[in-house]
Amino acid sequence: MPELAELKITADYVNEMCDTISFWSIKKNPVHKGSEVEMPFHKFSITAESRGKELMLYLKDQFSSEVINLQMTMGMSGHFKMVPLNEIPKHSHLIFYAHGSVALCFVDVRRFGKWKVTNDWSNNRGPDPTTDFDAFVDNIDQRMSSKDFKKPIFEVMMNQKYFNGIGNYLRAEILYRAEIDPFMSTKEALLKNSQILNLCHDIPLQAYQLGGGSIKDWQNPYDKQPENWTDFMLCYGNKNMAQTIDRTGRRFWYDPKWNQTS
Q1: Catalytic residue flag (residue 150)
Q2: pLDDT digits (tens, 9 = 90+) for 62-92
Q3: 53 among known catalytic residues
Q4: Is 24 helix (H, G, I), strand (E, B) or coil?
């Protein structure tokens, strides 16, 4: 599943590909359960911004200042590709037709990606730890007494209300580098090692700078393999690490030394 780093790369790709292109129509694949996107503009531009695990597409009318905000999540495999009209990928579920015989396609083999027209970001997700770090820390601090924070930190780090953008591979890498018992309560872990929050800022940015991870079904839109990715992934997927399945059915990798206390 694409996480914070991969969403930033996706936004970069959309902005780069759409920089000098105007669009005229949007079409939804009938097999996808998502809603149709009504487009009142005859000529519009597209820019993108990421926030945690969400992407916002700004569809701006080129004849006025009106903008439609299309909020998207990538699901397990969602990514964008700019292609000639005769090369539209099979699993394209939202197609933005551009002037010049090309199209920007939202490709999603698993069909878990979602979109909706909205005025703002989701209100059930916390601040992005890389672009709004102070608000991210404040959000955590204000919830230290929450019953959620009595749960093990490796579980709570998947909760987007607190750790927006942190997913399966990022939590493994962050907790491994923090050298903290992942089975410790979230409150205790954060009080013992506040560097965990700093790592929530630093590690996703490192992953982004390396080019993100082609994790399972996600495909880098630039068709590039990440640089030095095996050196970056110290814990996730490492055969020398211990594993457990969390309450959501996700496999979590961690330092086996914590088996003594878990």
Answers
A1: no
A2: 999 899 999 999 988 889 999 999 999 999 9
A3: yes
A4: strand
